[in-house]
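Hey L., structure's done. Input below.
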Amino acid sequence: MRRSELAALPAGAAGVLCFAPFDLFWLAPLPWLALFFLLRRAPTPRRAAAAGFLFGLGFFVAGVSWIFVSLSVFGGMPWWLAGPATLIFCATMALYPALAGWTFKRWQPAADWRQMLYFAALIATVDWLRGWIFTGFPWLALGYTQAPPSPLAGFAPLLGVYGLSLLVALLGAALLRWRIGLPLLAACVAAGFGLRQIDWTEPVGEPLRVALIQGNIPQQMKFQPEAFYRTLSLYRELVATHPAQLTLLPETALPAFADRLPPGYLDELKALAARQGGDLIVGTLTGDLDGAYFNSALSLGAAPTQTYSKSHLVPFGEFIPAGFAWFMAQADIPMSSFTAGPARQAPLRVAGHDVAVNICYEDVFGEEIIAALPQAGILANLSNTAWFGRSLAQPQHLQIARMRSAETGRPTLRATNTGMTAIIDAHGNLSAALPPFTTGVLSGEVRAYTGMTPYNHWGNLGALGLIALLLLAARPGRRR
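Output:
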């Protein structure tokens, strides 16, 4: 393997600096410029695939190393198994940029500008593929680098995160020819800034007083019997001392089946929530008579009790893929065999508004979020990222939630166990947030929004259509 191909490894790792918490969004085209340069120089498709693989390996090892924390520190898996498992996962994700590299070289166009279009289309395509194959892992899709305050975030309501992946990759490739790249960059920044001035949706109704509760329950204590009553007492106290029209508690804040909680506990929460005609949404566990159990959000208060059950489950964390029971036997992850809830569930009608609830990882799937629109005026995410410790996972997840608001023109309320609990406005800007790994309540006001962005209408079809147009314009060459 040549030194030039090995350079792809640190180039990929540098790409993580473009994401939260570093937020060097202006740097985003440069790592992908390096990849474009390496693919052009590769003598064969196999060598181009190797460069793409090393780029991806550096990118994912640097960006999602928190998977090791989840498996080893909190999942109880021996380090000698968790380490290779994390590396294998990152290597599997690196196959996507490897596929882009192989395809680019196999049918590389002759003209420079066609190569730029072809490269950008391929990078956006593999980002999209990664978002749904084997249930999907769209974490760190390139477009997330352009969440607000990037001026390119103006394109989010039109093309979504994969459209932004396409745009950033195109800018990176174009910078190889600065006489093309710099004017294109200036034009995109100006257009994005102009698009950010457009209000695709509009507020409706009066401001809603909200309270988002961050319990900061250590993951190793969450399901311990000796901590159970302390947890219930903490949440009851925080709800009692922070009245609001809408109160949100984190994912599995009540770490037991709802029908097995101490008698009268849910009634207490309901009475506290209903003090001002308000409602409360809390993460808990629910089950049915067939023995299935769900990761759910339960509403309590003035409105009738409603339930949302998580439908997009996390492999290994919430369900065991076929053939991997032996692997999960090496870990100690409670409740790792959930049943998926229905694919389409109505928003919860609470505090006089329709709220589209999603749980933890579900908000990385933009097309699933828009299924609740236009009915829902507010998005709400309940998460427990304590599984990932003090890692990049929390700020990365907050950045993803901000992209969902920018795409949909809806505010997002995030109630998390350890961070990042936040209020995000309808443009994707961070209005307020609690410091991570602290116990507290984030109080504020939010307004529901009505109307539809182009992304709400078409989902990822807009980005996919643009990718197809670029592929047609690039006119890839004959098979080499």
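The chain is about 45% helix and 15% strand. The CA atoms of residues 354 and 375 lie 7 Å apart.

-- N.
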